[in-house]
Amino acid sequence: MQNGVLLAAVDLGSNSYRLGIGKLEHGHVHLTEYIKETIRQGNGLDENRNLLPEAMQRGWDCLARFAERMSGFDKKNVRAVATQTLREAKNRDVFLDQASQILGFPIEVISGREEARLIYQGVAHLLPQSKENRLVIDIGGRSTEIILGQNLSPQVMESYRTGSVAWSMKYFKDDVFSTEAFDKAEIAAKAVLDEAVALYPKESWDQAYGSSGTIGAVCDVLFANGWNPDEITPSGLAWLKKSLIAAGSSNNLRLEGLKEDRKAVIGGGISVLKAVFDILEINTLHYAQGALRHGVLYDLIDREDEQYDVRSITITRLQKVFAVDINQSQRVSQVANHLFDQLSHKESEPLEQNKLKKKLSWASDLHEIGMIISHSDYHKHGAYILDQSDTPGFTIPELHRLSLLVLGHRGKLRKLNIDFDDENFCQQLLCLRLAVILCHARTEPEYKTLKIKFSKKSPKTIDLEIPKSWAESYPQSHHLLNLETQSWLKTSWDLKINGD
Fold it and tell me: Which of 21, 285, 405, 482 could form a disulfide with 33 if both were Cys (CB 3.0 to 4.6 A apart)?
């Protein structure tokens, strides 16, 4: 990326939506604009975990305002991520389909651990480089992320389903701040966070930092009332809790530094923060300027370089963990991308084509990931592994799409729950299946004389041109390719094999 380019990050949180715009200068992002709107989408889930219409509308209205500000931004310089509420919502696709259209950019639902990774990146990039072991905590509307890391490298990342909006709705729903309500809320939060004691023992970290949301609000109140700036201590937290109980309800709450839009969720936020302090034995929590949006901005930069793209690093790690045959995966990747290049439309955007090829390469790299479990059904096990994994760098839909390619690289196509009108996916899938066939002997195949193209007769018919001499030299591969044509007959696509 060139110096001076503008980058944008959109964070669809459970309590607030945020837009951060930054300018890239010599590898660093300087935030030039920040917009935050309190949406409280987290309290818009019904008992069946469906987003209510009014909660969806609040989100759409906010994104329309963000879209106006982001008009003219290049797609490669924008990333929008959604967190816990949209991870939970069963009807999230209904919301996201329209939300993406309104915003003008795709919106990605990220996993809890991916959210934790990005939060750490945002915090670490805005702190001085140091060898200290850092504990980073972010209490959002419906989830709490805790991360242990050093410099720019997160080492332990977890997301817990407890947050300011969720706990306020559950334990302070009658708008009563009482000792009993706080006791129940803190005990419940500790029950969720209990496993963090083993993951983040006190001796494993040197300094604790808090990011965004609840922690920022608590710091503001404490500083406005005479406490040290940008830090929270157990005594300060106890004073704040006592102040809320004395007020009795959010309507009666009059605290210097507390913003009006934070009153409704401050009880839940403080109870979760108090639980974190207690179980992790925190004496001082320092407020960090970095947050999820900063991490998203820096991740945009990293994705431009294969060496730093955490997704590529994740793929390599998975190959090692599941003892993938690297030579075979490289052969399949090379053949699949060779075929995909031939199918690419000349008018297609190069950036989009490169993204599709990269994802095809990842699917090729991992197509045998399930082999360590079972030889006969390894494609099914591989797909399951990917769907159930917390993989750094990948969004939930992105990972599922990858799992579908792994599942579909062999066997019947009708088993795939996919839209066969998705031309890009079907091209990736076809090229992967053909590559696996051509590499079936686990040796370097002769594939460069094969030509593949869209038929002039039908937009969903693909012609594979095979020289007669090739068919005679590789009769088994030719046989397998002919069988493959039968598989595609049961879809809306057609594969034709033509010889000299």
Answer: 21
